[in-house]
Amino acid sequence: MNKKILIVGASGLLGSNILKSFDTKVFDITLLLRKELKINKDIKQIVTEFSEIDSISNEYRFDEVYIAIGKRLSIMELAYLPKKSRKSFEKVDHDFIKNIALFGRKHGATSIGLISAVGAKSGSLNSYLDVKGKTEDQIISMDYEKVVIARPGHLLGERLNEPVNYAVIVFELVTNILGYFLIGPLKKYKNISASDVAFSLISKMSDQSKGIIFLEYDDLTRS
């Protein structure tokens, strides 16, 4: 029987790379998303607002859940998130993710892969990292046999559904160069390919390990 996979966030950079990494002839793929995608008809899609996930009444069965959603923030907002923006950010990056994880568990999933962020920690003075850390804690507290949390730095890759952002282009040019000087404990902050992160997350989800597993730069870089 094909393993049943639920992917959330397949329209985004990392979620689309997770989807591309699966062979639909080997895996039974279902997407949970807000807008239907024009893709392989063999891939099932559950189209709903994430705030209304509790109203889904259909019966589903999943083995693994991959969550790769997050509110789009500017580079400045990552460093300092204004108070007026914190509630909407927390709604997406904590509340929605929590509800999706509960939905997956309700429908039989025993393993979950979560895209978080390097430096995530509940109680951090940085609001972005604080929420990311609280979300990690929430997922860990659920009754999953296996929790794999990826903590990448800035993701590199073609963002097909986003307009060209010259600030991001300049940021990547500068930080790609600076990355050569990030060694030792600072190495985890280096920019990283979204395709490498997707591949590494799926590889770890597919092995025989159990429990709580964190993946950072060295674990996420495809060798």
> Separation of termini?
31 Å
Could you give the order of the helices and strands?
EHEEEHHEHEEHEHEH
Main sheet makeup = 7 strands, parallel
**How many strand elements?**
9
- The percent range for helix content is 25-40%
Class by SSE composition: alpha/beta
Give me the CATH fold name: Rossmann fold
CATH architecture: 3-Layer(aba) Sandwich
What does the radius of gyration come to?
A: 17 Å
Query: Please, how many domains?
Result: 1
What's the rounded overall pLDDT mean? 94
Globular, elongated, flat, extended or rod-shaped: what is the shape? globular
% residues in beta strands: 15-25%
- Name the poorly predicted regions: none
Write the CATH homologous superfamily: NAD(P)-binding Rossmann-like Domain
CATH class: Alpha Beta
| Arrangement of strands in the largest sheet | 3-2-1-4-5-6-9
SS field, number of helical segments: 7
